[in-house]
Queue: 2 jobs
Job 1
Amino acid sequence: MTLMIYCKLAWRNVLRNKRRTLIAGIAIGIGLAALIYVDALILGMEDNMVKSATSSFLGEGQIHREGFRQTFEVDLTVNNLAEVVESIKQEEVVESFTLRTFCFGMISSPANVSSVSMVGVDPANERHLSQVDEALVEGTYFEGDDDRQLLIGRKLAELLEVGLGDRVVMTAAQAGTGDLAQEMFRVSGIYYFNVPQMDQYMAFVLISKARQMLALGDEAHQIALKFHDAYLGRDQDHPFWNRYSRNGNEAVGWTVLLPQLEAAFELSGFSTLIVAIILFGVVSLGIVNTLFMSLHERMFEFGVMRAVGTRPVAMGQLVILEAGALAILSVVLGMILGFVTLYISTRIGIDYTGIEFAGVTFRELLYPVMEVRQFIVFPLWVFAFTVGIAFYPAIYAARLTPAKAMRKSF
Amino acid sequence: MEPNNQAGVIIAEAVTKVYSDNGVPVEAVRGIDLTIKHGEFTAIVGPSGSGKTTFLNIVSGLDSVTSGRVWLAGRLLSEMSGRELSDFRRDSIGFIFQAYNLIPVLSVEENIEYIMLLQGVGKSERHRRVGRILEKLGLAEFADRVPVKLSGGQQQRVAVARAMVAEPVLVLADEPTANLDSKTGAGLLDMMRELNQTTGMTFVFSTHDRAIMERATRLVTLKDGRVDNDETRD
């Protein structure tokens, strides 16, 4: 029964000085909205980075011969390739896959020479796995029967001083013998990923030509994978990886291929925590200040309440309930503010394109990711924190003697 | 030696109170011996700084003594814990202060009801007692108003109603008419005197106002923290 009257008192007291309550509520609300926004931004950034990293070329997972990732040795082709490919075709989790060959070689033009990673691709399947076709700024994506077509990045084209239709020579060591092989290619397309490693040090040719040049037969160095559920690429415990990590092969998701990305995400999570601590620190000072202002303003009233028989604990309860009422208002304001700003950002996106972070260049607009969790967990944090921090003024109020309280008011 | 508690509602024995004012000790009360009997209508008078408010605070358990002892309704105040004192004040003493008596966010009815809520009195009984006292003090029409919508005199009448509704043994009033004009102040005192006579409740109040002193049946004059004069009237 007494709790009801204290709840009533607390609610009315909070609404007593509407301007101050509104200012305090907005301050706390902005803290909450910022927390929601930062979390959504980091989720969006993670999604964007994963997408940029995996969909531009990497794929969400890869299968290679063990040791290939470390050495890029041209002899290390996927074991039992035909059997593995047949098995992958039966996998329901796999949306698409493609075969690739890799080798380090030298590319030379009449004007210059450069080291390069020559990638043999199957154009039809590659379209589903990478964005090489979308990144073309000049020329075409492997059209016609010419097996000497070559796609190079804009920076490499500038370095070699070549354009569409110009001829270049690739030199690479063959599998098995290690003999040098040379082939002439004609530049059929120039792409721009805005990723230095791809724009300057990669060149794409047809896989059939690459196999012939490297004496690989029907072998391939890599099977790049795309899943129906992109999360599988992050879930290294999924049985899929074990099924294909045998017979000397290894199957790994992008978290293994790009460990720096996972580390960057952990850093982002830590950053959110730091932001939260700073925001909560600032907000807590605001709450304590507001509650103490309110308390000092009503010192005589507190004295009267104690005089007529309100117990010390009840005075503390009242302060905590007032903080709770303030927290409810603030949380509602913060959720509205957070939702509106987030909704707008998820519609228009944030332009980070071209900026590189953890070795990944943002290629698309960044869209913060709004989740229901953000509107449950963070408001509960703020509520609990606001009420928790109120224990300080509550203890102060509980310790006030009536006579002291009434004296302090004058 | 224990005093004869039948003799008085308040028994103060060699009470002193020393405050620290920015590190400087201030003797507000310097050895007061005083007994207030049941049913008395006592005025504590004296100039500013004479120790009236401090003395009232001490005998009501709002403040502690530096030395000496105070019995209130047979209980030695210094032996009670903070919580016991709160409960004792709630059940045994009605308070009226010179201003800002009421909780501003509660209506007149809720303000009067507040102490009974603390006491755990049932809803129907609360409403019955609040209705009766509002009627008795002519406040029925203001039941739903918040204090700020009332005049100073009306607010003090509500404070009287709140002080009396729990039927305490003692009503303490610290300069209850200080913020009222003389006519309203006199009316309030007449009302308190009438309640004293009809209910037999003990009233102790401090005042500066000579006109109000006239209504007291006992006049205790304090000077420099000591009882300077103690006069009983018929």
Job 2
Amino acid sequence: MSSATSWPAGLRGACRWCPEPVAAPPVFRAEALTKTYRTGEVEVQALRAVDFEATAGEFVVILGPSGSGKSTFLNIIGGLDTPSSGRACFMDQEITKLDDRGLTRYRRDHVGFVFQFYNLMPSLTARENVRLVTEIARRPMKAEEALEMVGLAQRIDHFPAQLSGGEQQRVAIARAIAKNPEVLLCDEPMGALDPATGVKVLEALMRVNEVTGATTLVITHNAAIQDLAHRVVRFGNGAILGVETNARRKAPSEVSW
Amino acid sequence: MAAGVATLVLGVGAVSSLERTRDAFYEANRFADIFANATRAPRSLLERIEDIPGVLDAEGRILRIAILDMPGMAEPGSLLLVSTPSDDGLNRLHLRLGRMPDPNRLNEVVVSQGFAEAHGLVPGDKVRTLMDGRTREITVTGVAISPEFIYALGPGDMMPDPRRFGIAWIPGEGLAAVRDLEGAFDNLIVKLATGASEARVIAEVDALLEPYGGTGATGRKEQISHAFLDAELQQLRGMARVLPPIFLLVSALLVNMTLGRLVALEREQIGLLKALGYGPGAIVRHYVGFVLAIAAFGIAAGWAAGAWMGAGLAGMYARFFDFPFLLFSRSPDTYAIAALVTTAAAVLGAVNAVRTVAWLPPAVAMAPPAPVRYRRFWGGAVEQLLQARQTSVMVVRHLLRWPLRTLGGVFGISLAVAALVGSLWSFGSGERMIDLSFFRMDRQDVSVVFSGLAPMAAIHEVRRLPGVLRAEPLRVADARIGSGHVTRRIAILGLPEGSDLSRLLAADERPMEVPEQGLVLSEALADILGVGIGDQVTLELLKGDRRTLSVPVREISLGYLGLSASGRLETVNRMLGEGSVFTGARIALDPSQEDAFYADVRETPGSGFLTIQSLSLRKFRETLAQNQTIMISVLAVLAGIIAFGVVYNFIRISLSEQGRELASLRVLGFTRSEVAAILYGEIAVVTLLAQPLGWLVGTGFAVAVVRGFGSELYRIPLVIGPEVYARASLIVLGAALASALLVRGRIARLDMIEVLKTRE
């Protein structure tokens, strides 16, 4: 999909410790990621030497209880946070070496985010919220197209205050995918929604994953969702406890929680 | 908050302190209430004057102008010799250096402080003067200030010039001998008892002095030093009335906005309190108490700072006016008003913010507020029109969503612009006054005022003086002009036919010929008398046979300095019935022969007093610049603070409201500058909208100042060029920019991760 040429000059440079690409090159590769927070006198180990890889087009569900480190992990590979030690690579670029400007560029060009609380601009309509991103993206799709993909073609001129929670979250997904990102990072996207609405959001996410081929990482503490993933990664106490691959993926309508 | 309170306390405090100080100084030195001149009145008359009901004390003095002969000073200067007041007399001196002259030594004098400073004179120094062609050397024994000469203005001068004009107090006997006035006086000062009628005493004094060449007594209001000081204080008073209230208003607005937001952020705590069983009344009381505590602190700080700075400012002015002491006044009502307005603003802000939450059920209050409802304005026409990026749309919608706050910001900043426009224009207007007065009306290089009347033939002698290119005779006579019961004492100016050095300008600024009959009144005089072209005015001449005439007003002329009435020289002479005479001349001079001219004039008996236009102009500029620099610096700083404060608060509140959205934008890959641009865009729109409004309001201020200032000493032409608006805007934009940069750090530190975890 993307290549090193999309990186701004000065940030370019091969990630030396990444192995030479094999058949399916990893989109993400993390090695020994550690994150330690210090709150007052207390030191909290949020991540303990996490190794991880994801390949292009993969739909990965990350499971784990609160405080297991899954959000910290997502924030670091999403370029929102930096690790205390260890490295993370996106394609052939070591993102843990980037400065604020480089990380901003990385988020802007390659990452789509979806969060539990939507984080929409209340002053912009659905269409305008999506345009916000397409205006600064390198190769965006049309805002209307993105909204149609999440099933909101009829409500594009509504403000967030006029939309239900599920609709707002789907606007957020449309906003995340409209830039045609290589990766889609979702942190508890159904966390604030009722099950029926959650299903709609999940369907939207899976459809986007299939259509655009964006590597999708979905954080949840809801174990029911694991059946939808190609692969399930379990977090606990700041480390990856296990990884499972689903032989058969279920459709969102087949799961219940 | 403190700043708003401080300015009010400062402004009002400084002005009332100066007024109190002046009054105390007048009182301590027994400054007279009524002033009169005569030719030669016997001292025995003083007893009869003191017998007039309402007169506390009367003193006869002798006044004499001597020409200065200072080494190294080519331009002519003069010294007004005044009889020293007796120990219990009026217009007493406040000795700064040395001692009073010995009454038995006729050559000893005390000189005015300004004059002494300008020439570096100390007790023991000698000064050479020329009187009636005779050189006389006098010895300085002391330096003093007097309530009568706080502003010492030489005859014909518009601004004080202590180098060229000074006062020397000399024992009465010494002067009497010189002027042949033994047992007599030519100047009278009278102190009134409290509550006495000034007008009645003036009428009686005039009647008593008339046989002795009295030229009409005047009250303190027309005493030149007092009038100048009063105009100055008036100007300060004007500033103190207009500016601090603006400042207080803006700070109240900020307090209201800031505390309102502060309380709004406490929404969840309010919910918690409700859950714990507090009623809405208790909650409102709690938050009112909270902002009252903040306000109390701000008010106390403002009081202290205002009192301190007010004392400083008053002290500065007291030195400027040379008051020997300073009485600082504290008026409790100023303090109270400042406190009241501030408190009200704070409490209103808090109540307004709490009100929406305090009556909600606890569970609702604890939950975050529903997303703010926005809407498209005029069917999205604005957005269409702007063809804007979504970030610009956000800016526009956020501003329109809170129209009152946006207007408040616009209003606050526009007041800063207005305060500047309302003062900066005075530069241009001063220049215009100069252009009209010095280059288009009175275009002479020098004017001479003789000490008496000269026959018309003497103008030829003036023309024969070295360097004289052109000389025009001039007749000046004191008169009282009136219409209905309004009267004013003025000098009637007689100008020759075809007068070119001294010209009258019509309203359209074109020079006009002096009409053969009747008078031309200056605009200011016509306004005061309420007369127009064709009306009759009564003219009571205070010279010659003191006849009273009815004279038609033929034209109204432009004029900003003083009140003037002019007529054809022959007409004025005819009115006065003194034959073909003149009292002075306006002269165009060859600059290369200036010194020879001055030297010749100095030696000529009866040549009186010289006014040099270039020096007057320089002095005028200096005085103007001095006044304006102080005032405008104060204003620029105030306006800067206002703009800075409004912008800072506006951005901070906006950041506090939109912090979550802005952090979300950072997550989406917007750079710091792009995010900052949203906040800056808002304040830029507010600041830009404020400019034209500020220009408008400022022009209104200027008009009000012109109307309010129209003192009889001078009028101010209203001239506001584009540079005034530009300068005002630049200063305000600079302050806004500085303020915006200060918030940049906060924008850079927006916590992206925090906003993802919380709902709001």
